Amino acid sequence: MLTRIEDQFIAFLDSLSKSYFLVQKTILGCFAKPFEAKLVVYQMVSIGYRSLPVAMLTAFSVGMVLALQAGYSGMYVFNEPLYVGTIVAFSIVKELGPVLTATVITGRVGAAITAELGTMKVTEQIDALYTLGTNPIKYLAVPRFLACITMIPILTAISNILSIIGGWVVSRFKLDIPSTIYWSDTLDFLRIDDFFHGFIKSFFFAAIIGFVSIYKGFETKGGAQGVGKATTQSVVTTLVLIVVTDYFISVVLVAIGIG
Amino acid sequence: MIRINDVHKHFRENYVLRGVNLEVNDGETLTIIGGSGSGKTVLLRHIVGLFHPERGTVEVDGVNLGEVAEEELQEVQKKMGFLFQDGALFDSLSSGENVAFGLRHQGLPESLISRKVAECLEHVGLSGIENIRPSELSGGMKKRVALARAIARDPKYMLYDEPTTGLDPIFSDVINDLIIHLQKTLKMTSIVVTHDLKSVYKVSTKIAMLLEGRIIATGTPDEFKNTTDPYVQQFLNGSSKGPIKLKIKEY
């Protein structure tokens, strides 16, 4: 029993040190030559552009449902749907936009990165890169990481806009709130700080998605089963980390006066 | 020159290498033989720097691979070609792009790369398959493309992990001839891990036998043929009776 706990503790420390070195090497690799610009652009298209439809659809739906719930709750409490635009804008821009976009991207991109790198690992393709004098961190990890931290905040910003538009659609056509009221509720109270509050968070979430999915891919062991296990672990770990770090990032950002 | 000194390696409870000592001189073709799971591939991976020994040293041209920085290790790896047992082709690239991969990272002009790719594919009998994806190739063809990729950069050292496994007898012989050709014309130093005794006798200038994590015998093919060592004899004769006991459950 004690040996098993010892083994698990050693494995935990081992994974901590490995993930630390992966993060360090990836960050340093971003500034080291040769710059794999083509690969970065390819990953940006794959991670950013191809995720756009699913991120937009999710954001639009969330904006609609949020407006609906805010409107009916307002009617229950105040007999009229008050501050729907404000509720939608604040919830989306500061919290739901970054978290939901990160969640959707975790499922679409994080899982794909882990599965792809994991398959490359178990079929010795990563070892083959070493033997061809190519650093896998530079060739595989850096382009994916750079694409994540550039494209996920952009996707978050686009999602925020789509959510607010979704909220307007429900407010205007379902709750019969005049457009001017919705937009003034939205824009009068929302400050640039609130936007940055969510935008800064999305950088951290992007880094979490990138690092966890790359780490889990590189550490995949076994065959097809190992790839499946690594992919599941990658998605679960990323989602838990996003939700947990969200609180602490929010606390820090509020403390330093951003949002 | 490659010098392996007292190399130890274990994975959990499995002690794979228990003090391997071996020297490979420039221009030699060394074949490492031994039973399945005896650690031949693990030893080969130490030589190319994919594994680092827990004890002992692996030196390539005087560079201790366990002590150098990553950049210096990569420079040593650039001198080596490695043929993986299952090919390890990049499935996101075409066959031609796979062969060109190492050349592109050397910054060579495209015209030279295309010529070199065509030449290497011709060496392995696969001319004109540049645009075919690895997923469309048979197992043997994948291995041949992998060999073309490994030799494309004219490495000083060529490491083969089971080069003829999965190939038909005729093509196995073509690969054997290619190993000899590379050794004779380019003075390439080769290390071959194989079970194929026909290959062993054909390509080797030196043979080493690995048993229970140690090199138990080294010598020329003729010395191996005439050996009195019961372990080597049993392996070469392919007999289940002898001093090498296999851990097989009796039914």
Strand % of chain B is 15-25%
Which structural category fits the helices and strands of chain A?
mainly alpha
In DSSP terms (H or I, runs of 4 or more residues), the helix count of chain A works out at 9
What is the overall shape of chain A? elongated
How many domains of chain B, as an integer? 2
Order of helices and strands of chain A: HHHHHHHHH
Concise structural overview:
The complex is a heterodimer of chains A (259) and B (251). With 259 residues, chain A is mainly α. Chain A has helices spanning 2-30, 37-47, 52-78, 84-122, 125-131, 136-173, 179-189, 192-218, 224-255.
What are the defining features of this structure?
heterodimer; A: 259 residues; mainly alpha; 9 helices; 85% helix; elongated; B: 251 residues; alpha/beta; Rossmann fold; 2 domains; 6-stranded mixed sheet; 4-stranded antiparallel sheet; 10 strands; 24% strand; globular
Care to describe what's here?
The complex is a heterodimer of chains A (259) and B (251). Chain A has 259 residues and is mostly helical. Chain A has helices at residues 2-30, 37-47, 52-78, 84-122, 125-131, 136-173, 179-189, 192-218, 224-255. Chain A contains 9 helices and no strands. Chain B has helices at 40-47, 70-77, 95-104, 110-123, 139-151, 169-185, 197-203, 221-225, 230-237, and strands at residues 2-11, 14-24, 29-33, 55-60, 63-64, 80-83, 157-161, 189-193, 206-211, 214-219. Chain B has 2 domains: 1-79 and 155-251, Rossmann fold (3-Layer(aba) Sandwich); 93-154, no CATH class. Chain B has 9 helices and 10 strands. In chain B, a hairpin with a 2-residue loop joins strand 1 (2-11) and strand 2. The mean pLDDT of chain B is 89.
